TrEMBL record:
Any Gene Ontology biological process: glycogen catabolic process
Start and end residues of each Glycogen debranching enzyme bacterial and archaeal type N-terminal domain: 18-228
GO molecular function: 4-alpha-glucanotransferase activity; amylo-alpha-1,6-glucosidase activity
Domain of life of the native organism: Archaea
Span of domain Glycogen debranching enzyme C-terminal: 277-624
NCBIfam families the UniProt entry points to: gde_arch
Official protein name in the record: Glycogen debranching enzyme, putative
Protein's organism: Methanothrix harundinacea
Pfam families for the chain: GDE_C, GDE_N
């Protein structure tokens, strides 16, 4: 089954439950609902990354279309105001599709058709909106603009405007605030006005307990007379001051997206996810990085290392993968990789350990020993630092790593307190530590470097302390033992070099299947636990309390299927079962984002999708698991062994 990326919403509610996203490769994006109605402060047609890939700034919120013909006036836009929706242009929306770029098809009662396409110029903070109209009417487009952080809804700041008359008949406006940008058209005439749209409401932000009302400014309008068929473009940009070349841009972007699909022999669902995988890859300085999720995340070290194999290796984008690994290695500090690269935060204990997993995967896929040689000093420095002490951890006498509260991936915080502190010796951290030591043993042998394997043996022997014979699985934490049933032990069981034996892996998989597995990934806590929270909803504090206390994370389906394959030695039966386990996510069932996979789901049925509409490790781990565990790619990776 190929996911259908065309929609015919029958109501406003149905149309606002799906959101589209396009990106520009430098952190900027355009996004809204399939109705064109903004329900988030993050929605807009031009969210520019002023310091790529960060400092994302909302500039163009929307374009409101209106056409006047002999039979009347028709508005195609839609906004939520206190107590009402106005106008209700969704009633004229016949179809939305994203194949390969977002396209809206409107048809009015008098037979006028309007096709609207939205795309971004790759590598630029430039959005192009193309209109193809058939009918007889006066067509107007009213831009709503702002100049604010994309995080918080707020009133548009004061703006100066300067009309622009272009060669060839085009016109537009240059808007000056704390960021200058232009709106220009090749065929539509710009008319200066100066209107305020007050009390716009963003329903998704209201539900999330965040600022959800703002006032937007409209500097003027574009208008053009249509008699028969007419096509024209509107360009919003901080880098271009002319619509020249818009036609070539759209052709180039459609071709670029089609190329991303790759080998036509691969499953169509995988190929479609491959185009979404590209949206996370961004330029950072002279290197490259991976955005953790849209709309609101920066590039995070942990997320980048976990998602890289699926996003870039299964699609054979080895040069990009190499660039990302080099970027993060170059940002290493005190043996740690940045957690939030944009915020320059190093508050993580596992990002550097996932780095070994990612480099090992890279070598398994590419057979590129050159990068291993290049990164070897950094990897050796990480091991040397972790074997003593880092700013957030220390190596105990038994060789195991003990870390401070809130430094694992379960790091949500409410009122200054970590919800799931996991201080001490965590099961997946020490499995990652063992895996890192074994990876270094292999790489050292390949490069002819001296390496003492004694520490790995010590860690492997000490790891038996995590085994809980009463439940037949791992303690989540020792030395103060925590018997909570969480998916962290599944991560430990899935690693290429795991300190667990086959029987232990089978026990972990069986328990995870019984208590954690859902159609959309693994819960972060067993529903049998008194601390379980089954709904991810409410304000920031309520959501953070649920974040790792039962909420489902799709990315965990990757470690689960891999551990399951390990427990069965990759039999055909298990591969078929893995295919079925991944099917809901591959088929894009129950998603928010068009063609992509969201961040989390409620732990309780009906498993509502929540969080970011498009999450890097959700997409990446589904792609990796599909490629390796279903299609058998792991069998061809000689290094990927217990």
């Amino acid at each position: 089954m190929t996911p259908d990326l065309s929609f015919h919403p029958k109501s406003y509610q149905e149309g606002t439950e799906r959101e589209w996203l396009i990106t520009n490769g430098i952190g900027g994006y355009a996004s809204s609902t399939i109705l064109g109605t903004n329900i988030r402060s993050y929605h807009g047609l031009l969210v520019a990354a002023l310091d790529p890939p960060t400092e994302r700034t909302l500039l163009l919120s929307s374009l409101d279309e209106e056409l006047t013909s002999e039979s009347g006036r028709y508005n195609l836009a839609c906004h939520q105001y206190p107590g009402t929706l106005y106008p209700q242009g969704f009633r004229h929306l016949e179809e939305f599709r994203q194949d390969p770029i977002p396209t809206f098809l409107y048809r009015t009662e008098d037979g006028t058709s309007v096709e609207k396409k939205v795309f971004m110029a790759h590598g630029e903070n430039t959005t192009v909106v193309r209109y193809d109209i058939e009918g007889s009417c006066l067509f107007k487009v009213v831009p709503l603009v702002n100049c604010r952080s994309f995080h918080v809804a707020s009133r548009s700041p004061p703006m100066d405007q300067e009309r622009m008359d272009l060669e060839g008949g085009g016109s537009g406006v240059r808007l000056r605030s704390w960021c200058d940008f232009v709106l220009v058209s090749d065929r539509a005439r710009y008319v200066r006005e100066g209107l305020w749209f007050n009390n716009l409401e963003y329903e998704a932000e209201r539900q999330r307990g965040l600022a959800w009302r703002e006032d937007a400014f409209s500097p003027g309008r574009f208008e053009v007379q249509v008699d028969g068929r007419l096509s024209f473009n509107i360009v919003a940009s901080i880098e271009r001051d002319s619509p020249e070349g818009a036609e070539e841009l759209i052709i180039r972007e459609e071709e670029r997206i089609k190329r991303l699909e790759g080998n036509k022999k691969r499953d169509p669902r995988f190929r479609r996810l491959a185009t979404r995988a590209d949206q996370f890859l961004v330029r950072r300085g002279d290197g490259k990085s991976i955005i953790a999720g849209y709309h609101w995340f920066n590039d995070w070290g942990r997320d980048a290392m976990i998602s890289l194999p699926g996003l870039l290796l299964t699609t054979r984008r080895f040069d990009d993968a190499r660039a990302v690994l080099a970027t993060f290695a170059g940002a290493m500090k005190d043996g740690l990789l940045p957690n939030d690269f944009g915020a320059k935060g190093y508050n993580t204990i596992d990002a550097a350990l996932w780095f070994f997993w990612s480099v090992h995967k890279y070598c398994s896929y590419s057979r590129d020993a050159g990068l291993v040689r290049e990164l070897y000093p950094a990897m050796r420095a990480i091991v040397e630092r972790y074997s003593r002490e880092t700013p957030g951890s220390f190596s105990d006498e038994d060789g195991l790593i003990a870390s401070k509260p809130g430094l694992t991936w379960m790091d949500a915080k409410v009122g200054g307190e970590f919800v799931t502190p996991r201080a001490g010796k965590a099961c997946e951290i020490n499995a990652l530590w063992y895996n890192a030591l074994k990876v270094m043993e292999v790489f050292s042998q390949d490069l002819g470097e001296d390496w003492d394997g004694e520490l790995a043996e010590k860690v492997g022997e000490s790891y038996h302390k995590f085994w809980n014979p009463d439940s037949g699985c791992l303690f989540d934490l020792i030395d103060e033992k925590d018997a909570s049933v969480r998916p962290n032990q599944v991560i430990a069981a899935s690693l290429p070099f795991t300190p667990l034996d086959g029987d232990q892996i089978r026990g972990i998989v069986d328990l995870a299947t019984e208590e954690l597995l859902t159609p959309y990934g693994l819960r972060t806590l067993s529903p049998k636990d008194p601390a379980y929270v089954g709904r991810y909803e409410g304000g920031p504090a309520e959501r953070d309390r649920a974040y790792h206390q039962g909420t489902i994370w799709p990315w965990l389906i990757g470690p689960y299927t891999t551990a399951r394959m390990k427990s069965s030695h990759g039999s055909k039966k298990e591969r078929d079962e893995a295919r079925e386990l991944l099917r809901p996510l591959m088929d894009l069932e129950g998603q928010i984002g068009v063609g992509t996979i969201c961040e989390v789901f409620d732990g309780d049925e009906p498993y509502r999708p929540e969080g970011c509409i498009s999450q890097a490790w959700s997409v990446g781990e589904v792609m990796r698991a599909w490629s390796e565990d279903v299609m058998g790619g792991a069998k061809r990776q000689k290094r990927d062994e217990v």
